[in-house]
Design goal:
The structure holds two protein chains of two kinds. Chain A is an all-alpha fold. Chain A has one domain. Helices cover 71% and strands 3% of the residues of chain A. Chain A is built from eleven helices and two strands, in the order ααααββααααααα. Chain A has a two-stranded antiparallel sheet. In chain A, helix 5 runs antiparallel to helix 8. By secondary structure, chain B is of the alpha/beta class. The termini of chain B are far apart. A six-stranded mixed beta sheet of chain B has the order 6-7-8-3-9-10, with helices on both faces. Chain B has a four-stranded antiparallel beta sheet with strand order 2-1-4-5, covered by helices on one side. The chains are: A mainly alpha, B alpha/beta. Chains A and B meet through helix 6 and helix 7 of A and helix 2 and helix 3 of B.
Chain lengths: 291, 234
């Protein structure tokens, strides 16, 4: 029984990690309707930035979250404005998706050029310190990640439901023509939303970097799970992404122990497919335009 | 107040409007009637800024609005209640109404205006916290009109507000529009429901194949032989 509780706790912590990475992805997909294949590479770049900032300025990795959120908001907004938006009028909408694939490849190779292929480790005092809660042993960094994910979901939910800008963002997702008739500048909303989605990755980078070593291809490793989480939760649903992340985290942790570590991906993809057969729109997705 | 001068517009390769000229004076109810495909909706969408005119000018209170984007046109006080209602389906009625007040001039006093608008629509008040897509067609049309009023527009345009509604509800929609006129709003109304529309209009234009073929007072158009034959079946 003790081991089970420990495994559940591990699963939830892992879910916190997946949620942190998935929230920005689902936000951008749900509102801007662009699948950002460079999402994992945003995380990779963010982790390098954390690595550099902690090294140069002797900052704690968590402190770098502040400049990273600002930097990534600007980066995301610029990508929407100068790469995605000019492609909005393209005859084939898939062009936008390929642009993000190109961006991803370019970022990986740029990182290879600058940092080489070696793993770089960011150190953060106290991040790997064990914390005992009841009979469960967790790392401080895992708990921070989980709490940040919960906080981020709540913050974005409040922002989207309680503010003029948040309501305008949801309106654009549900009916962009009608939103324009309300006086909402749709292109501006896309730029802001892409910025917010990228800023989520900025925050995630500061939390992930002291836990995992960074290499140019680390983004691909994380983003595959993030895509599963986003589809499972219902594309565009923030709460859905959180729920999906927790399910994948738990399945990963439990099946890795009770079935076999090498089979855990088989198990979670099997569950993933089963859930999609039962609910093709994902757990909390209501179908087209439900954000 | 609104002056549309020799405007042509369309979609892609198709030109729908061929040199249309209409005007709306402050406080007037002006209607545009015509058959399906005559270009009525295209004309309203062009004024609202959703479509750019190919030629001609559109001025509102002396300002050229022909080349403004839709969201900038709204900011000047021109609101379109679109065809087929176009609510935000997965948002509550309340959020839909708040979005109506998105334009800068409408945000102050939003709650006060919400109270005033709900006076007109007691049924909408009961539905405030339901999702818009759970409402009946008639209720959705009332929400669409209420949402338009939340912008506190000076010129309010309606695109086929009675489309697809039961006769009882159509009657209510027209009553609401008359109340809005009574509030001093200037109204530009597009309808297929020619008799009821001309009955409440000060002036009307008859649109056929993208051109104005008749322009007169509402009462005179109701007696016009062409209108009676083509649209009223008399």
């Amino acid at each position: 029984m003790d081991i089970f509780i420990q495994l559940v706790a591990n699963g939830l912590m892992l879910g916190g990690l997946f949620a942190m990475i998935s929230i920005g992805l689902t936000l951008i997909f749900g509102i801007v309707k662009v699948i950002n294949f460079a999402h994992g590479e945003f995380l990779m770049v963010g982790m390098y930035v954390v690595y550099l900032l902690t090294g140069w300025l002797d900052l704690h990795p968590y402190v770098t979250a502040v400049p990273l959120i600002v930097l990534f908001f600007v980066l995301g907004a610029a990508i929407q404005r100068f790469i995605i938006q000019p492609l909005l009028d393209a005859e084939d909408p898939h062009v936008q998706i390929f642009a993000t694939v190109g961006l991803s490849t370019a970022m990986i190779n740029l990182a290879l050029l600058v940092f080489g292929a070696d793993l770089r480790t960011t150190t953060g005092i106290g991040v790997r310190a064990p914390v005992h809660i009841g009979g469960v042993r967790l790392l401080f960094g895992q708990i921070m990640m989980f709490l940040s994910a919960v906080g981020l979901v709540l913050a974005i939910h409040l922002f989207l439901t309680r503010t003029f800008l948040g309501r305008a963002i949801r309106a654009v997702a549900q009916n962009r023509g009608a939103a324009a008739l309300m006086g909402v500048n749709v292109n501006k909303i896309y730029i802001i939303t892409f910025g917010i989605g990228a800023a989520c990755v900025g925050l995630a980078s500061a939390l992930v970097a002291p836990m995992y070593p960074v290499s140019p291809t680390i983004g691909t490793y994380f983003v595959l799970t993030a895509f599963v989480v986003v589809v499972l939760g219902g594309m565009g649903s923030i709460q859905g992404a959180f729920l999906g992340a927790m399910i994948i985290g738990l399945v990963d942790s439990l099946s890795g122990y009770y079935i076999a570590p090498d089979l855990k991906e088989v198990v979670y993809f099997a569950i993933f497919i089963a859930i999609l057969i039962w609910r093709p729109t994902g757990l909390l997705g209501l179908g087209k335009g439900s954000e | 107040m609104l002056l549309v001068d020799d405007v042509s517009a369309g979609y892609g390769e198709v030109t729908v409007l061929h040199g249309i000229s209409i005007d709306v004076q402050p406080g007037e109810v002006v209607t545009i009637v015509g058959a399906n495909g005559a270009g009525k909706t295209t004309l309203l969408r062009t004024i609202a800024g959703l479509i750019r005119p190919r030629s001609g000018t559109i001025t509102f209170e002396g300002r050229d609005i022909g080349h403004l984007a839709a969201h900038d046109t709204v900011d000047l006080g021109v609101t379109l209640v679109p065809e087929a209602r176009q609510l935000f389906p997965f948002m509550t009625v309340r959020d839909n109404l708040y979005l109506g007040a998105f334009r800068k001039d409408a945000r102050d006093g939003m709650e006060k205006r919400l109270g005033e608008v709900l006076e007109l629509f007691p049924r909408v008040r009961e539905r405030l916290d339901q999702l818009a897509n759970s409402l009946s067609g008639g209720e959705q049309q009332m929400v669409a009109i209420a949402r338009g009023l939340m912008a506190n527009p000076r010129l309010m345009m309606f695109d086929e507000p009675s489309l697809g509604l039961a006769p009882m509800i159509v009657k209510q929609v027209f009553e609401v529009i008359e109340e809005i006129v009574g509030m001093g709003k200037t109204v530009l109304l597009v309808e297929q429901n020619v008799f009821q529309t001309l009955s409440i209009a000060d002036r009307g234009y008859v649109l056929e194949n993208g051109a104005v073929v008749l322009a007169d007072t509402g009462a005179a158009l109701l007696k016009n032989d062409h209108v009676r034959r083509a649209y009223l079946g008399i």
